[in-house]
Amino acid sequence: MKYTEYHFNVKPLEPWRDILIAFLSELPFESFVETEQGFLTYIKVEEEDEQLIKELPIMSSPEVEISYEKKLSPDINWNEEWEKNFPPVVIEDQIYLHADFHPVRNDLPFSIKIDPKMSFGTGHHETTYNMLHAMLTMNFEGKDVLDMGSGTGVLAIFAKKRGAHYVEAIDIDEWSYGNALENSKKMK
C-alpha cells in the first residue's frame, strides 16, 4: 500500500497544531506524529485529494501560518520491521518473553515464545510487564483464569504454564484472536 507523507509546519504551534490535526482527522489521514514545528501525517495515495486540504477553513485563517511539504512515503511494512527488531524481555530473572528469532535461553524457569504481529502484549509496555511480574506471586494451580483483552495471549499462556486448570482468552480484535491462537500453539 502506497502512502503520501505530509509534513506540516504551523506558526504559532499552539493551539493551531491540534486544531489542524482535528480538521485533517476528518479526512482519510492516518498516524499523526508531532514534530517541533508541526507534525507528520500519512494518507493512502489513492485517497489523497490535496484540494480538500486547501479548502479547510484553517488554511486561510489570518491567525495562523501553515505550510506543508509532501512526498511519497517508502513502501515499508513498519510493523514487520518492528517485529524483526524487537528485543526479548526478561522479568525478574524468571520469565523470558521472546520471538522465534531470539536465542533460546534455558537458564530461566519460564520461557514464552510469541509472534507479536499487530497485537498488544510483548512485555515492553508496562501493563503487560507488571501483570506478568504480579502473576509470578500468584498460585494458579487448578484455578480457572480469564484473560480479557488478551492481545498476544501472553498472560493466558503464562497462567497455563503456572498450572491453571482452565484458561479463557478473549479479544474483540480478530487479528489479536488469531495471533493468540498461534502463540498458544507454541507453548511447551
Distance between the termini: 37 Å
Shape type: elongated
Q: Could you state the order of secondary-structure elements as H and E?
A: EHEEHEHEEEHEHEH
Major beta sheet, strand line-up: 2-3-1-4
Helix fraction, binned, reads: 25-40%
Overall pLDDT: 90
Please give the radius of gyration in angstroms: 22 Å
Largest sheet: 4 strands, antiparallel
Per DSSP, the total helix count is 6
Query: How does the helix and strand content classify structurally?
Result: alpha/beta
Strand content: 25-35%
The total beta strand count reads: 9
Low-confidence segments = none
Give the SSE map.
Elements: E1 3-11, H1 16-25, E2 29-34, E3 38-44, H2 50-54, E4 65-72, H3 78-85, E5 89-91, E6 95-98, E7 110-113, H4 126-135, E8 144-148, H5 154-161, E9 166-170, H6 174-185
Parallel strand pairs: 6-7, 8-9
Antiparallel strand pairs: 1-3, 1-4, 2-3, 5-6
Helix pairs in contact: 4-5
